[in-house]
Amino acid sequence: MPNTLIVYSSVDGHTKKICDKIEMTIANSDRVETVSIDDVYNKDLVTYDKIIIGASIRYGNYRPSLFQFITDNKKILESKMSAFFSVNIVARKPEKNSPDTNPYMKKFLKKSSWEPNYLGVFAGRLDFPNYKFTDKYIIKFIMWMTKGPTDTTKTYEFTDWDGVDAFAKKLIS
Fold it and tell me: In angstroms, rounded to a whole number, what is the distance separating the alpha carbons of residues 84 and 86?
């Protein structure tokens, strides 16, 4: 049974929720551990057969710790079966919800120069009621500009959970 490490970089917790779904899907075939990018340095990556990384976008950027982790561990990542998925609201649009069409995935691949074996893109969630005041209105403005939802009293879930499940099933060896 392969050892699989799932690493997540999340601002509001939705990427972690997607990682938990992936873990549930592959747990019958792999020994799985899920850990935050902030805690992954306590792990010996060499002991894992597969490494899956999921990261979210906030204001057009991934967290810097994502790129630092990849830089620090690029040789190990390239020696393993690896996967990366991006979580972003832009992926709610059908024309931007695949690795080939999503601008944040393209940006990630160019900046990281890491080539994972598998790529995925998932639309995230807008949780207006739980955002801080400034975030709520900046994100509302971005949504208005991109013709997305702007009612700040609501939460909008765009994630295609069947798509997450299909992605996870590709990772089972």
Answer: 7
Long-range contacts of 163-168 (CB under 8 A, 24+ apart): 163/120, 163/122, 164/18, 164/21, 164/22, 164/25, 164/120, 164/122, 165/21, 165/25, 167/22, 167/83, 167/85, 167/118, 167/120, 167/122, 168/21, 168/22, 168/25, 168/26
Considering the chain, tell me which residue range(s) the CATH 3.40.50.360 domain(s) occupy: 3-123+158-170
Query: What CA–CA distance (Å, rounded) separates 21 from 27?
Result: 10
CA angle 123, 6, 97 (to 5 degrees): 20
The Cα 162–Cα 166 span in angstroms is 6
Element housing 18 (H / E): helix 14-26
Joined tokens for residue 172: 């089972």
Model confidence, pTM: 0.94
Q: What is the pLDDT of residues 31-57, one digit of tens each?
A: 999 999 999 999 999 999 999 999 999
Name the CATH superfamily housing domain 3-123+158-170: Flavodoxin domain (3.40.50.360)
